[in-house]
Amino acid sequence: MSHLHALYINGTWVEGQDSIANINPSDTSDVIGQYAQATSDQVGEAIQAARQGLAEWRHSGLEQRYSVLMAIGDELIARKDELGRLLAREEGKALAEGVGEVYRSGQFFHYYAAEVLRQIDERVDSVRPGIEVDTRREPVGIVGIISPWNFPMATAVWKIAPALAFGNAVIFKPANLVPASAWALTEIISRQALPAGTFNLLMGAGSSVGDALISSPDIHALSFTGSLDVGRRVAAATAGNLVKCQLEMGSKNALIVADDADLDLAVEAAYAGAYSGTGQKCTASSRLIVTEAVHDAFVEKLVAKLQTIRVGHALEDGVQMGPAVDARQLESNLAWVAHAREEGAHLAFGGERVECATDGYFMAPTLFTGTTNDMAVNREEVFGPIACVIKVRDYEEAINTLNDTQFGLTAGIITDSLKLANDFKARAETGCVMVNLATAGTDYHVPFGGRKNSSFGPREQGRYAREFYTVVKTSYVKLQ
Fold it and tell me: In which residue ranges of the chain is pLDDT below 50?
């Protein structure tokens, strides 16, 4: 049996009620390890530990926090190849993407280490004579963090790093499909100069550990990234206890290809947006809105691109697209292919399971044409390597089609027109817009989040993270 990887509560590695096997989706015979599963009682233990850790960490010196975050970032970057391989092995993204995710995670810690030293409060004049007023930011308290499986390290880190930087205690529940990256990150954090209880790892099912965490009145904030349906449950549970809540949920992002688009650039942006990470990204451009003037040429070029893509084991050299994360996701993807065809969409490429040397959850990159924006495949988040082309008359129809969705995370346009680009930036009803870039791929020092049903609560990343991880205190002093 593989080595048991324990939970981390109150500065100690502890056993859970049982364990699960972490399986490599590129090779189902490869068991990465056994990972402990927490009980609902252990959620309470972690909250109590976090309360004690918070009492000390919130009053820690700036240089102590800075040094801790820098050390974590340094180790992640130094071990990017090793940990990137582990990440790709458990999640299925191509090795280069796994290494890049770990490197970016290190950058997050470095960025928020610097933010520790930039916490400058404000003094203002009172409207009343003889009174001085200042405002300061303090830790929000105990923060519950629930992260998804598609970015098992980066999404967790862009929550954990600011939480620690601003003096909070953390209870971290990763997705149960990808515990190895979370455990490796926790092992690094466990060796830092943090008070016991400041950081806790609870691996386990969302139906038990997750529900116990989101329904607790003893945490102060909850940051969640996942599906819209679960996000609504999180919002309802936290609202009942008046717990501060931040949600990143579903998406149905679109890339517009305008009349004047550089089609080679458009194809590269469409591929990177729709198919990188096996399409398992909340920023994936699964709707490709193309004007009729360039539609046929664009489709021809994109199909030619897809014909060159090598699907296979995530750790093999030259593989550009790995497997779906598990059997359930692959089955969902193939079901969407069948449903799209039933709706009348034309399968231009792919759509089938791919057989490789190892037993894994491989699927060909898939492209549909002849789709309309009212088809279910263009309304619901698919989360696989499937993109649909929607032909429109002109830019005006394209922007209206882009906005006709319940989601609003990212959107892109390929155009040589400054006028169109500026109009698009103003009218796209999304939190992030990209011009002549893929919809997937964001920087770590600027705000990230969406509109409509994609996001709820303060933005993540950059300086905007302090809106969620801190509370403001206003002090009045009468000068004697």
Answer: 1
